[in-house]
Amino acid sequence: MESFIQLRRTTKHFDLDGGVVAAVNGIDLDINKGEIVALLGPNGAGKTTTLDMILGFTEPTSGEVLVFGQHPRQAVVDGRVSAVLQTGGLLRDLRVSETVELVASTYNRSATGRATVAEVMERAGLNKIAGRLVQSCSGGEQQRLRFALALLADPDLLLLDEPTAGMDVQARRDFWAAMQAEAKQGRTVVFATHYLQEAEDYAQRTILMANGKVVADGPTEDVRTQASGRTVKARLPLDGVERALSIINAQPRVNAVTVELDRITVDTGASDNIARLLLNELDGRDLEIEPASLETAFIKLTDADQSSQSTTAHLTHTSAGEAR
């Protein structure tokens, strides 16, 4: 597939009073045409810094960032990249339609591919508030306005930083319906979010970051199961429950088994094997297989990385002490 974004061994360090902080710590990424990608992680994971480098707002300390095979700033100048950020870029005393018209006037309208004011107002769902002053718009309505401004260049790549902050449930659904429509046109959409449900509902791919590193990357369903597998449920004959418990607990990659009357629930990393066992050998019925929630994977993977960081720090400290 055509790769729109490439990061190679990319790092970004900041000099703070307490020393050097590695906001991004050697990541490699390829993001392709037409993908909807969630950039997910706890505060301080490096999500916004990564987006800033892709937009050319800041340069990597080391490594490489390419957007459409060129420096990110050039891709932005060429109109191939647009962004919807959390703050900035709006004049409070203008009306919504006036804001879109003003920004549209800065583009070369003779260029092919430029979207019209009417088109972006419709696509962003702004027609009902076209005459409202920006300062009277809610936070969610201002985010939709930023989305409309981002569409004016008719970009190939949309970068969104917490795009639905301040939106109510219906506005959020409408916004993501618009995003899915944009992706169907071949655009790539990359969004950083702390709403786990958004990533689960709308992202085809989830990149999970912690401590400036990528700790999981793949189809969202695969990321869900990477840390904690799947849950297999079935009903058993009452006189076969004890035997089933003994057999299933002896299987590899079984994390937990619970029983409530005739209902058995197995948390496992080998769901196919457990399902076959329940159906073929243990007379199971009403079988269900459920993926782990993205929240569960998020917690387990980020906690695991934090533990790894702590262990590394401890070992480094010990080695330094022994050296002294």
Brief characterization of the structure:
The chain is an alpha/beta fold. The chain has helices at residues 47-54, 72-77, 96-104, 117-123, 139-151, 169-184, 196-202, 220-228, 241-249, 271-280, 294-323; strands at residues 3-16, 19-32, 36-40, 62-67, 81-84, 157-161, 188-193, 205-210, 213-219, 230-235, 254-260, 263-268, 285-291. Helix 8 (220-228) packs across helix 11 (294-323).
Secondary-structure blueprint of this entry?
Elements: E1 3-16, E2 19-32, E3 36-40, H1 47-54, E4 62-67, H2 72-77, E5 81-84, H3 96-104, H4 117-123, H5 139-151, E6 157-161, H6 169-184, E7 188-193, H7 196-202, E8 205-210, E9 213-219, H8 220-228, E10 230-235, H9 241-249, E11 254-260, E12 263-268, H10 271-280, E13 285-291, H11 294-323
Parallel strand pairs: 3-7, 3-8, 5-6, 6-7
Antiparallel strand pairs: 1-2, 1-4, 8-9, 10-12, 10-13, 11-12
Name the features.
disordered C terminus; elongated; single chain; 11 helices; 6-stranded mixed beta sheet; Alpha-Beta Plaits; alpha/beta; Rossmann fold
